[in-house]
Amino acid sequence: MGRIIIFTGKGGVGKTSVAAAHAVCSASRGRKTLLVSTDMAHNLADLFGIDAGRQTRQVTDHLDILEMDPDWMMQNEYPGLRSALARLVGDRGTISRESDEYFLLPGFENLFSLLKIRSLYLSGEYDRIMVDCAPTGETLSLLKLPELLTWYMEKFFPVGKFMVRILSPVSKYRYKVTLPDRKTMDDIGDLHRQLVLLQRLLQDPEVCTVRLVSLPEKMVVEETKRNYMYLNLYGYQVDRVFINRVLPEATGNDFMDHWREIQKPYIRELESVFSTVPISRIPWYPREIRGLDAVEKLCGDVCSSPDIFNLPAPAHREVYEKTPGGYRLMIPIPGADQSEIRVEKYGLDLDITMGNHLRRIPLPASLSKARIAGTSADKEMLSILFSLPAPPESEMNEESAREEKIREREAKADKRKERIRRFKKANSRGLKEEKESVPDKAEPPAAGSGKDGPES
Ligand SMILES: Nc1ncnc2c1ncn2[C@@H]1O[C@H](COP(=O)(O)OP(=O)(O)OP(=O)(O)O)[C@@H](O)[C@H]1O
Ligand SMILES: [Mg+2]
Fold it and tell me: What is the CA(13)–ligand 1 centre distance, in A?
């Protein structure tokens, strides 16, 4: 099975360099590898000193690179899905309904980069796909797109549920939208299906994981922690953190030694925050990383760990636990601050808001009537307690009537057993008396023939 590894982090921390080192290292071990960039400010071609293009370019025997152009891909490779998306979000990225609500979806065209990554993965052409991303904010927006769009489509278009020709007449009344023609609706249905599959792929830790690149500097450390929290919120598995540009011990240069002392507490902080995630340190090189030779040199530090391409240990994602009055939902969001979290329930949607980030989690139908009884967040986990309403009185009455009937039936059966016991006892006493009075001739009465025999 192939692998997808996504590299993200603050601007300029070394994402492209680290992703490239992974790709070169993987290819040098004989695995067909693709290094793909979703950052519009591409620099893969510059890094390897080759011409860029819209198609994949070969760098070495087993290594190709691809600089994604989502606009071009949308027009040329996914024209059907493009029109479906345009029907949904319009030209300005606004999902509109025939109500007053509007929803802006900036950068929605980037979705086509993810769809393309999925189709490259499915083609089976590559053993490993390394994804070099834009800085944190844009990458988070990109990674939450599939789930967000799927939610909106399910909410406002009856996709994947019914056939459009049956629904068209009722859609306007029921869903407050006028459904497009059948062809567009088929494309919307197709887009919805692809989005669902895309989410499943990207959130499957056996296929796709995320690696964070950080620096031992205050601002970068803070952003790395937040990034980690949000990635967990969206259900992505982070399986390694790189601390880049670590200064070596005793450089003999006061200025450098001073900076090394500044770096130390940040390295310690990263190591304590990411105590459950493998961490690799990358030294600060005396020159910039450019060209295949330089990337190969970086491989020694980036990929020195023997398990660098191994799958991470399986981690539990959303877990439900039965409680006396309902359920507890546990979501691993390390480092979440309770005061920053807002959790609300709308029907079968659970909205978790942290800062500017919102995640909508679909709840199981059994929680439709539940209400949120409390939330708590510790170092690793966000817990949401749901309480279920007590069953209505009519149901209680039905239930107690059922119990009463059972009790009556059992009492009747006990009575019957008692009568049989008494009858047998009486019979054996009678027999004994008869035997005693007429020892040789007496015949016992046939069971059930007497007046007091058990009811049939
Ligand atoms: N360990 C290192 N030692 C020295 N220079 C480095 C190191 N890591 C990266 N660089 C240099 O830092 C610069 C930024 O690196 P890179 O382009 O990989 O970062 P990035 O996170 O992809 O940046 P952007 O956010 O702009 O895409 C490059 O010039 C690169 O050569
Ligand atoms: Mg880059």
Answer: 6
